[in-house]
Design goal:
Blueprint (H helix, E strand, L loop, with lengths): L13 H6 L1 H6 L11 H19 L2 H26 L9 H11 L6 H17 L4 H7 L2 H26 L3
Helix pairs in contact: 3-5, 4-5, 4-8, 5-6, 5-8, 6-8, 7-8
Protein name: Phosphatidylglycerophosphatase A
Organism: Iodobacter fluviatilis
EC number: 3.1.3.27
């Protein structure tokens, strides 16, 4: 799929983060610098950001914001991946953030809804069932970084809609 090595050319740190706006965005405003489980930290960073969004915008407006952040994330992830020399470096978490926002659009604004959304999204993002794994392995660049998380979000949304069909959250 790509010729990127798996070990970054540079060690990402706060200096790397602020060296280019794309790095700051791709690393989820710093949440991707976590030493362990950066994807989980990126997903957690999405929660307070979404809490602010939902206070300021309608769900439809948030969906449009997600589209914009997806496109911005494609750009930022591509630049950051090239700078690191690693296509989908674990610290690039803007994909987790926008995907989590999409999932949160489909759950009630209560702790149970948010917990289920977080848990299901992380499960699908980590285990990558088909076709998520296919896209993850074959789509290069920033789009490749972003698309597998959008698909994981879609799986989580489908399960959440099924749960909500039978149970009230």
């Amino acid at each position: 799929m790509n010729d990127y090595p798996q070990v970054p050319l540079v060690r990402p740190d706060w200096q790397f983060l602020v060296a280019h706006p794309a790095h700051f965005i791709a690393f989820g405003f710093g949440s991707g610098l976590a030493k362990k489980a950066p994807g989980t930290f990126g997903t957690l960073a999405a929660l307070p950001l979404y809490a602010v969004l939902i206070q300021c915008f309608s769900p439809l407006s948030i969906a449009w914001i997600c589209l914009f952040v997806f496109l911005l994330g494609c750009w930022a992830s591509d630049i950051t991946g090239k700078a690191l020399g690693v296509h989908d470096f674990g610290g690039i978490v803007i994909d987790e953030i926008v995907a989590m926002w999409l999932v949160l659009l489909f759950v009630p604004l209560n702790p149970l809804g948010w917990l289920l959304a977080f848990t299901l999204f992380r499960l699908f993002d980590i285990f990558k069932p088909w076709p998520i794994c296919w896209f993850d392995q074959r789509v290069p660049g920033g789009v490749g970084v972003m698309i597998d998380d959008i698909l994981a979000a879609a799986y989580a949304i489908l399960v959440l809609l099924g749960i909500q069909h039978f149970y009230i959250l």
